[in-house]
Amino acid sequence: MLTKFSDAQTVDIFKDERDGKLREVGDQAVWSLSSCKPGFGVDQLRDDSNDTYWQSDGPQPHTVSIQFRRKTTIHDVCLYADYKADESYTPNRLSIKAGNHANDLTEVEQIELSEPTGWVCIPLKDAHDKPIRTFMIQIAVLSNHQNGRDTHIRRIKIRSPVNYGDVPYPNTSNSVLKNLVYTIR
């Protein structure tokens, strides 16, 4: 299924984090890239600056692989792209795959971006319209704007719900865990 995103998206991705609904779980994973120019790798992709970026260096598709140590519930993948600054380096078509390991990935979502500037959040849902649970996510840049060869992605965030159903995730907040303990007693 192909989803199209326009350049008019204005998303405050930090609102749900401030409200305690979602949390960023990318720091719990091991990140790897299909290729990168020296000084434009995972560290630049994961820092908190919109001025740095990952730059691929090789043939398409360019991939970012995110592997978790345990099965993790993923609400969405958010990426920051800037067409005005990156032009032909800006991703145009992306594929997001999920699975247990690199050899069993299946496509969850395919999106087309139209000159994005800012955050683009891609919800990842299973067949029952619930957030997916997975060990691994792979983001593949299938094509760039203006038929560019290499790609720039400035930031990627992987977000998980703080509460999934009625059960809070471990290590979310002490007050939630205390309330759970009191409820059990």
UniProtKB/TrEMBL annotation:
<dbReference type="GO" id="GO:0070979">
    <property type="term" value="P:protein K11-linked ubiquitination"/>
</dbReference>
<dbReference type="Pfam" id="PF03256">
    <property type="entry name" value="ANAPC10"/>
</dbReference>
<dbReference type="InterPro" id="IPR004939">
    <property type="entry name" value="APC_su10/DOC_dom"/>
</dbReference>
<feature type="domain" description="DOC">
    <location>
        <begin position="1"/>
        <end position="185"/>
    </location>
</feature>
<protein>
    <recommendedName>
        <fullName>Anaphase-promoting complex subunit 10</fullName>
    </recommendedName>
</protein>
<keyword id="KW-0498">Mitosis</keyword>
<keyword id="KW-0131">Cell cycle</keyword>
<dbReference type="GO" id="GO:0051301">
    <property type="term" value="P:cell division"/>
</dbReference>
<keyword id="KW-0132">Cell division</keyword>
<dbReference type="GO" id="GO:0031145">
    <property type="term" value="P:anaphase-promoting complex-dependent catabolic process"/>
</dbReference>
<dbReference type="InterPro" id="IPR016901">
    <property type="entry name" value="APC10/Doc1"/>
</dbReference>
<comment type="similarity">
    <text>Belongs to the APC10 family.</text>
</comment>
<dbReference type="InterPro" id="IPR008979">
    <property type="entry name" value="Galactose-bd-like_sf"/>
</dbReference>
<keyword id="KW-0833">Ubl conjugation pathway</keyword>
<dbReference type="GO" id="GO:0005680">
    <property type="term" value="C:anaphase-promoting complex"/>
</dbReference>
<comment type="function">
    <text>Component of the anaphase promoting complex/cyclosome (APC/C), a cell cycle-regulated E3 ubiquitin-protein ligase complex that controls progression through mitosis and the G1 phase of the cell cycle.</text>
</comment>
